[in-house]
Amino acid sequence: MECTEFKYSLKVWVTSMVVAPVIVMICDYAENSVLPPSPYHGNFDLLPAYPTIVLFSGICSLPTYIFFFLFIKITINYANSIVRIKSIISVLGIALVAGTFELFFFLMGGGTPNVFIYSMIASCLCIAWFSWFYRLGTNEKLNY
Predict the structure, then answer these.
(1) Could you read off the pLDDT of 72-104 as tens digits, one per residue?
(2) What are phi and psi of 4, to 5 degrees?
(3) Rounded to 10 degrees, what is the CA torsion of 45, 48, 49, 50?
(4) How much is the pTM?
């Protein structure tokens, strides 16, 4: 199987960093339009903060990306079908993202605002989706 693990992992990671905040903004808007204003938001609007959110998530998820890339390289060497490879990549990606957020929640100590929980869920969904969405190699259709 001819693989470009670095390009694949980079596409999954960058796309997840760019798309997950959009999902968070949609969830945050839906929550704030239905519920009373949150003490964490007040008049704070997430749309102007989008570039900062993407930059912050990129910096915070850099160690996660390194492990994600290494897990992809290991998985490709030991799994024999593309379905198994992508399943393992998706599960490991979700575990890495959830673990990173849980560490962040632990360091925050206590009351975690909903926007951070939405961010974790959105990031996990994006990692899982884009792991399946992007092609891993040129012979991908032959290895199902």
Answers:
(1) 999 888 888 888 999 999 999 999 999 988 888
(2) -120, 75
(3) 110
(4) 0.79
